[in-house]
Write a structure and sequence with these properties.
With 117 residues, the chain is mainly alpha-helical. Helix content is 79%, strand content 5%. The chain has one domain. It is built from 6 helices and 2 strands; from the N terminus they run H-E-H-H-H-H-E-H. Helix 1 crosses helix 2, helix 1 crosses helix 6 and helix 5 packs across helix 6.
Length: 117
């Protein structure tokens, strides 16, 4: 159940960010849910491999290269789906940072509400 809630939060944040960011376009909420699933699969399967392969660069940049890896995951999801369009690397970077921050905040708020109940 927790994974479904996390996917819905990610989808809602991604769809909401398309109204703020002019360089990211998602057609509808159904596409945002599919985007969240594709992104979750990519982050589960491909991201750990990329992180291990780029350890030297990550160390030299003091971890900032992980932001580039997140942007690459967004761009790869864009290539795999027709219903999302990201206009370039910088839009993907901004989108990935905002998506991560806002999803984390909403998930922590949801977790606090669940603990109070």
């Amino acid at each position: 159940m927790n994974i479904i809630i996390r996917l819905l939060i990610t989808a809602a944040v991604a769809y909401g960010l398309t109204t703020i960011l002019s360089g990211v376009h998602i057609t509808d909420f159904k596409a945002a849910i599919i985007f969240a699933i594709v992104l979750a699969v990519l982050n589960t399967l491909l991201k750990p491999i990329l992180v291990i392969l780029t350890i030297p660069i990550t160390i030299v940049t003091l971890g900032l290269f992980l932001l580039v890896i997140n942007a690459l995951m967004i761009l790869l999801a864009d290539k795999l789906m027709d219903s999302i369009v990201v206009d370039g690397f910088w839009w993907a970077l901004i989108f990935s940072v905002l998506l991560s921050v806002m999803s984390s905040v909403l998930q922590s708020l949801f977790k606090q509400d669940k603990e109070k109940a």
